[in-house]
Amino acid sequence: MTVKTLKIDDIDVAIAAGSTILQAAQEASIPIPTLCHLEGLTPVAACRMCMVEIEGTSKLFPACVTEVGEGMVVSTNTPKLQGYRRMNVELLFAEGNHVCAICVANDNCELQDLAVEVGIDHSRFPYQFPKRSIDLSHPQFGIDHNRCILCTRCVRVCDEVEGAHVWDVAQRGSACHITSGMDQPWGEVSACTSCGKCVDACPTGAIFHKGETTGEKQRDREKLAFLMNAREHQQWTR
Fold this sequence. Notes:
Layout: E1 3-8, E2 11-16, H1 21-27, E3 51-54, E4 60-62, E5 73-75, H2 79-95, H3 110-118, E6 134-135, E7 141-144, H4 153-162, E8 167-170, E9 177-180, H5 197-201, E10 207-209, H6 221-232
Parallel strand pairs: 1-5
Antiparallel strand pairs: 1-2, 3-4, 3-5, 6-7, 7-10, 8-9
Helix pairs in contact: 2-3
């Protein structure tokens, strides 16, 4: 096995070739914030929260999809990156309708946690107040597009773990949104197995169990980790 050696925040790290900077940082217990990343799912670098600096270039690189290189020198928490991440979180709050006080995921929301981590309590950008729908057609679950941050975790977990392919991304720009089936109400999509994996994968209160009220949403991350590990090691293959 080929091994690559690099420095991350002045810490020497050795990791298998083909690994990403995020994996190398996790190996060295160096925190890098993420939103769209979920262990076991294909990384897509949608949220851009894990951007890092690499010595020798002025570009920023998403740690979740950038492979390590021999002798690479990486910085994960410079003032430039701190400012970028604050701006990124502010924009997420400004472009949606995130009202934490009445959200089912209040105090159990990764976006909320990240806002605290990067030190924001307001957005410098004008709020867009988009008109977004809520779909309660499914007998067990609901999706509130006002709280969606387009991380595509639900799309990937339904595709790659459950294999149902219920979710997808439609439109572009400010009109971009998660859609079920061929733009059908969720409850009418026959492919849905009602497994709830999309609820567990969602980092905010966008997808939830019907009947949950403010602060009541809980996720079973251990279930997802178990399923992803079993799939990776082919534990159910005869």
